[in-house]
Amino acid sequence: MKIAVSAASGRLGHAIISELITITEIENIVAIVRDPAKLKIGQIETRVADYQSLEEMDAALQGIDTLIIISAPVAEGGDRLQLHRNVINAAVSAGVGKLIYTSLISNGGEASTLFSDFASINRRTEEYVKGSGLKWIIARNGLYLDLDVVQIRAAADADGLSQNNGNEGRCGYISISELAYAYARLATNDSCNGKILNLTGPCYTQTELVESANEVYGIEVTYEPISVEDNIKRLCEIPFFATRGKDVINMLCGCFQCIENNIFDVPSDYLAACGREPLILTKQMKTLLFPKEK
After folding, report:
1. Which of 103, 148, 202, 237 would give a disulfide with 140, using CB separation of 3.0 to 4.6 Å?
2. Rounded to an integer, what distance in angstroms lies between the CA atom of residue 286 and that of residue 279?
3. What is the pLDDT of residues 143-153, one digit of tens each?
4. 239 within domain boundaries
């Protein structure tokens, strides 16, 4: 059985392939990328294709049984819904048997937030997957724990304040490695076919997240809620975010609006997907590696 991962050179794609290697033969795994030089895993069959090209994706998906479709990033612009449809249409044309789409958690209350457009594309893609005629799984990811921990640790090296507009709402977080563990099992098992799954752990407030990071990393950071307007201004002044553009910044602040309003406070289906519960938050944090620790 051939399993392909699209957009495989990104963080989640790399992690999924690394996990697949541990449970299936390496010749069963295919990485689909735009730039093979960005794939840092050797001995994997690599096929080149861009979400923008239906023809490239069709060729890349020949002989594939299961495809894990990683959502197109906001930072790269373009019509994300059409990009997703291109991949799905190519999968149908190429005779792929099963689609697994990486979506995002939500209880459906994001319409009044800056996250609304992003969420709408996810949900419309989900409907397109379900209407494809192929076997499918919709996997809705919790927020990446890795990314928020980076910001908390950066705050420890700066003024000791972790600021955003999430306030004390609850949100499901999960590490990229725990997501990869789940996707590898979903790709090699049909028990969850036809299901929508929330791949996340328990939900936490921003204060609880920061306190856990303080405990794990031996740092001293305090969480300070700020308004959405102030958070947009703050992110615009940070080069890492500013270079990614206004759409990305608005999407991120929209995420925190969702957190504030408990829109990402959803039940977890991780046990059903994997056969085990996700690692507890502090254990997930301990598995994260950062450049100075490698």
Report:
1. 103
2. 10
3. 999 999 999 99
4. no
